[in-house]
Amino acid sequence: MSDDAVDPEDVRHVADLARVDLDDEEVDRFTDQFADILESFDRLDAVPEVDREEELANVMRPDEPHDCLSQEEALRNAPESEEGHFKGPKVS
């Protein structure tokens, strides 16, 4: 994968959606890191498939009900909320 696989404007867009302010140096660094990550996924595509055992066992614990947060507690640290819901940036 080439270094041009990730555009700095894409990095800025993702940062805006995540409400993270990045300076130009950070954008350049993250652009390179995102390109490296995508390259790693390309390498995974080259790994051959292997046969797996047909018998699979569920090793997960059973679900157990627990008390949940109140709406007020859940929204306490939200940067914005509206009518009892999380409010996020408009995605365009």
UniProtKB/TrEMBL annotation:
The lineage of its organism: Archaea, Methanobacteriati, Methanobacteriota, Stenosarchaea group, Halobacteria. Keywords: ATP-binding, Ligase, Nucleotide-binding, Protein biosynthesis, Transferase. HAMAP family: GatC. Residues 61-75 have a biased composition (Basic and acidic residues). GO terms for molecular function: asparaginyl-tRNA synthase (glutamine-hydrolyzing) activity; ATP binding; glutaminyl-tRNA synthase (glutamine-hydrolyzing) activity; transferase activity. Allows the formation of correctly charged Asn-tRNA(Asn) or Gln-tRNA(Gln) through the transamidation of misacylated Asp-tRNA(Asn) or Glu-tRNA(Gln) in organisms which lack either or both of asparaginyl-tRNA or glutaminyl-tRNA synthetases. The reaction takes place in the presence of glutamine and ATP through an activated phospho-Asp-tRNA(Asn) or phospho-Glu-tRNA(Gln). Transmembrane segments: none annotated. It catalyses: L-glutamyl-tRNA(Gln) + L-glutamine + ATP + H2O = L-glutaminyl-tRNA(Gln) + L-glutamate + ADP + phosphate + H(+); L-aspartyl-tRNA(Asn) + L-glutamine + ATP + H2O = L-asparaginyl-tRNA(Asn) + L-glutamate + ADP + phosphate + 2 H(+). This is Aspartyl/glutamyl-tRNA(Asn/Gln) amidotransferase subunit C. The keyword Protein biosynthesis applies. Heterotrimer of A, B and C subunits. It is an enzyme of class 6 (ligase). Its EC number is 6.3.5.-. Residues 61-92 are annotated as: Disordered. It comes from Halomicrobium zhouii. One of its GO terms (biological process) is translation. Belongs to the GatC family. Pfam families: GatC (PF02686).
